Batch of 4 targets.
Target 1
Amino acid sequence: VVSFDDFRDEEYFIPKEIFEQAGFEVETTSLQKGIAKGILGGEAVIDLIVEDVQVIKYEAVVFCGGSGMAEKLDNEMFQSLAKDFNKENKLITAICVAPALLAKAGILKDKEATVWSSALNKDYIEILKEKGAIYKDESVVISGQVVTANGPEAAKKFGETIIRLLKN
């Protein structure tokens, strides 16, 4: 799941490559069809729009971060998708600022999670805490069927962690 504009390239392309190398098919969704643009200039073909995702067909959902996603944390379509995966007890994953979307959707209550922050911006940590998550200052955190990661530097570990869980 990417924001149509300004998704974080590494958080999409690195895990996607890891998933495909492990033999998984990846479909990319956003709020509209076309070519989504990454902050660093990468392009992602949107295979289907969010409302067309049939949760039963997938093993996991991956929410990518970036400044575009930061603007979509309250998006009902994205939150509803996360909730639908949660209802089906499927793997729900998010990186960078996207764990805040999971928190706002009610999925992180009483779960350990991480999220992007900086010395000057702790806003997303506060969102997690306000919504009942247990914040961990770690690169990747697994809590039940939820995996969160704190940003582009964690993209490889994030992708590898998801594969490990899917193969168990």
Note: The chain is about 35% helix and 20% strand.
Target 2
Amino acid sequence: NKLLSEKEKSNKLLYDVVFIGLTCDREKLYDRINRRVDIMINDGLILEAKKLYDLNIRTKAVMTPIGYKELFEYFDSNISLDEAINLIKSRSRRYAKRQYTWNNHQIPVTWFSVCFDDFNRTVNEIYSYINKKYG
């Protein structure tokens, strides 16, 4: 029954938790990010962005995430389509690196390498870890 500003600040978690992170080597991650951007482009990202651009929607929700702002630069004829796509890819890769760094330094994450060929193997490895540590 206290105001949030009156409550004692603490980093203590309310519940027992296990922080699990999935990782892979950087080259594989970057390749997957690049392929994901290509899929997004093929699935209509340019048309979707063009509709927002034509409606002159420039809200923070549209201009902050990676994707639309780079394509808006293309629509404004400031960069080529290839440059816009490459910007989306490079900014996505940098964002993934920042996420990894933040998670690695801010929370006690236990990292597991992902087996993309057999994801069940990754799941079983994590399950075994949790059972041994907390079971």
Note: The first strand starts at residue 19 and ends at 23.
Target 3
Amino acid sequence: CRLFRVPKAMLPEVRDSAAEFGETDPALFGRAIPVRGIAGDQQAATIGQMCLAPGDIKATYGTGCFVVMNTGAEIIRSQNKLLSTVAWQIAGKRTYALEGAIFIAGAAVQWLRDELGIIASAGETEALARSIETTGGVYLVPAFTGLGAPHWQAGARGTLTGLTRGSGRAQIARAALEAVAYQTADLFGAFRHDGISPAALKVDGGMVANDWLCQFLADILGVTVARPQVMETTALGAAALAGLQSGLFDTMEAMRGIWREDRQFEPAMKAEARDGLLAGWHRAVRQALAK
């Protein structure tokens, strides 16, 4: 507040994430509805994925990607360009998290459809990715708006490298999907350098309806990837907070039962293959950063 010269009196009262915030105007829904749960987009998704214990981690893959790890009562100051944030506050007790933001995830698939015109719908990318064994060395670094964590380089620009006469729509489409996993691996590297090694990852968002992508994530990260039945985890988390305040749940731990797993993906790629792919990715990123 001092930095931006904002008087604290202008700001609203800070309340728990599950609390009484008032009621909606009866004219909106035919009656007044109490508002009893409020959380930020990714914080709500973290609750919806039931990442309630320190070390639990989730990734939401939409236009961009947001990876959030519960760090419990301790606020961890990342030395590797991750963001410290408040996850939630219940009964006056605050829970913190570390977050990594990827600017472009599903937006790369939209680019394939809307700008390149090599697919008619996002769903086509899975079949294209499965139609080839590898990209043949093609890498897409989707730095269309710069690179987010852990680079934070607004001046980076997208690169498409490793093209040959044999490169076609399948290679480029698969490279766009692979880039999502590689960027997630960069975030996992930042977590590890901060002393935290995730053993599993819960995923949600529109992109993870793609089984091939989920399997490639597991392979590149070297951890189990779990996909829930309810993909709208942000809405689920906000509803769970309202349920907690309304007495539907006695504790946050009691909410775990509303999470249902759809499928697990186990890593199957050999370490040497993983290391080789990531080395190629890092070379491509260096080129994007050099722009």
Note: The helical segments are 26-29, 41-48, 106-116, 124-130, 169-193, 211-221, 233-246, 271-289.
Target 4
Amino acid sequence: MRIGIFDHFGWAVAVTASIDHEVADRRRIELIEPGVTPAPIHYDSKRLDVAATAALVANVRASVARATQAGLDELAHFLREPVVSISLRRWPPDFPDDIGVQMRAPYEARADAIMYRQVLAAVARTLDWHVDLYDAKHVVDRALDMLGDRADHVLNGPRSRLGPPWTNDHRVALAATIVGG
């Protein structure tokens, strides 16, 4: 099975598909524990100094790791076949790790989202899943090219077969399983 993730602050859409691109599961996964700030750099760093922000980020990352582990474990236990890969939205490989730098523009607008993706990748690797990164702007077009005549059935069919919700986030996550696989 292959999992495609479309992440948001604190939660993600997860679509799991077979090697034949049949949707086996789609769900919302919580990526952070309740009561924890979902965006420590973007929202909270404006009122904190670098040391306090770094401590907050460490606590948030730990919460994200625990919630992500629980969500992915629950999903994996639900599936009838083992997960072989997870596809996540790409982040810049040279994105700074330094919290002081992340607190400044243009980094502060993306630091929290990248944190979620990095934690998702780290947790997936502990589960021995291959991690693929995709470009959200182009992944659907790439999947359309790869699928040819089957594209509409594969990418849009789940809406009629499974019913709502089947949003663009679901479609992108499914496309990521196709391109990443």
Note: Residues 50-78 form the longest helix (29 residues).
